Amino acid sequence: PIPIAYEFDEKTDETFNETIRNIRRFKYARYTPLLYLVDKKKYAQMMAAQRNMGGFMKGILVKRLESSFYAFKQTLSRFIESYERFIAMYESGTVLISKDVNVYDLLDNGDTKKLLHLIEEGEVMQFKSDEFSVALVKDLRYDLNQLRYLQSLWADIDTDPKLMQFKTELTKDSRLEGKKIIVFTESKETADYLFSELEAIYGDRIVHFSGQSSAA
Description:
By secondary structure, the protein is mainly alpha-helical. It has helices spanning 10-25, 47-67, 69-91, 103-108, 112-121, 135-155, 161-172, 188-202; strands at 94-97, 125-128, 208-209, 214-215. The strands form two sheets. Strands 1-2 form a two-stranded antiparallel sheet. A hairpin with a 4-residue loop joins strand 3 and strand 4. Helix 1 (10-25) packs antiparallel against helix 2 and helix 3 (69-91) runs antiparallel to helix 6. The two termini are 28 Å apart.
């Protein structure tokens, strides 16, 4: 492997470093609510998984930041929406938690019959807000404020030095001239982003595939 070096300008460098600092300070409360239960005994076996979930979500933020600025901004928006909806649910007095079911869709659609069935089947856990310590909503709001802060920082970043350098290598590296090139990325959003950017250079010669969709 041959690394491709790219440089940040001063503003981008400061924003990137500030982002890393904030990611380390997040509580990830939205994704670890069971850790805030007043009585944890009933769910003791799930605590390790909840702690791991916090680390997993931290990893997602870091990976998206390293993948592309575009993917990171999209992830920030999703995190913010998720936090806002969870806080609203908490403030309603009832908290629904499931790792497999999108409880928000069921609530939005008013599908209480299906929701109650899933609760009875154990696929959705239902709690009263006062079953959690007050630290939960405090940490939720802290995280949300930090996410909004990062979103405001990245709103002012309109350059992508990684993409610019990548385009330069593709068009000027003689070793790649006339060759078929395969580009892999873990993030579908980065793949979509690269496709839209490189299509302007390669036209219909570029093909885009992902595990969710494909385009040519």
